[in-house]
Amino acid sequence: xxxxxxxxxxxxxxxxxxxxxxxxxxxxxxxxxxxxxxxxxxxxxxxxxxxxxxxxxxxxxxxxxxxxxxxxxxxxxxxxxxxxxxxxxxxxxxxxxxxxxxxxxxxxxxxxxxxxxxxxxxxxxxxxxxxxxxxxxxxxxxxxxxxxxxxxxxxxxxxxxxxxxxxxxxxxxxxxxxxxxxxxxxxxxxxxxxxxxxxxxxxxxxxxxxxxxxxxxxxxxxxxxxxxxxxxxxxxxxxxxxxxxxxxxxxxxxxxxxxxxxxxxxxxxxxxxxxxxxxxxxxxxxxxxxxxxxxxxxxxxxxxxxxxxxxxxxxxxxxxxxxxxxxxxxxxxxxxxxx
Length: 339
What we know:
Blueprint: H1 2-18, H2 40-54, E1 56-63, E2 78-82, E3 85-86, E4 89-93, E5 100-107, H3 116-130, E6 136-142, E7 146-153, H4 156-164, H5 174-186, E8 193-200, H6 211-220, E9 223-229, H7 241-254, E10 257-259, H8 267-278, E11 282-286, E12 297-304, E13 309-312, E14 318-321, E15 327-329, E16 333-335
Parallel strand pairs: 5-6, 5-8, 8-9, 9-10
Antiparallel strand pairs: 1-11, 1-15, 2-3, 2-12, 4-11, 6-7, 12-16, 13-14
Helix pairs in contact: 3-4, 3-8, 5-6, 6-7
């Protein structure tokens, strides 16, 4: 009898599961994860998840006409468009305190060996400058392979030692580096800024990934790219200018910047500028209206139109004065995610 009863129960459960959804018996409220008995804390957590999914964050660097960060602009100064549709800014942070994950990538190919000592020394100082509480940095070597020398850490001495231990390679796999670096950053968490600092001569030679794959992965994961191109040869006839132009395009797409130092003495100043920019970024957040289709890339544009200053004339009346011009950098698109 027990055997027959067990067989009937199993058959009944199987029949229920094999039916189409519309023909199945509804689950009781106590067994449903979205039931009315759900605790307030659980409901709040579910709401937070939805907010994080819908909110699009954009990091914005604003420089004045002297190429210096422009702090203290009000939210009213910013205009944000999604596919040419004006958006309401729901989140606004001056000098965002969002934690930083940074991948430091060194081109270790044969063509860069001459300048390596100065580059490593400047990078070691940058590591000490850039890391704040809550930030993490990883070190990668880029040659015909992309090799992690130090995992994400806030241990400055350990990271500086990793820079010294970067081995010499042969080829240069820049697209592979950007692809793998973006994926590594995405694994660190969603509520963090994702940055790659690439030091290279721009000579792509051995990647398995191509330009479009690398750029798409950077956009998909919200990676911000800064590129320092070390040119051993100054004349265009002796350089890989196609590689440089490709890096300029990817970097601009992410909202970062490309630097071309004339010598090793300029590296410290470039790293200081990157550090200062990372500490003076604005963070804008918006809920796309209308929302775009899933699994697509949406174009965004941010401009700054600061309020005109009011000055008092000798006669006591007010007159508007021009606030000066600003250059604005931000990622040019975002990925809507899977359905």
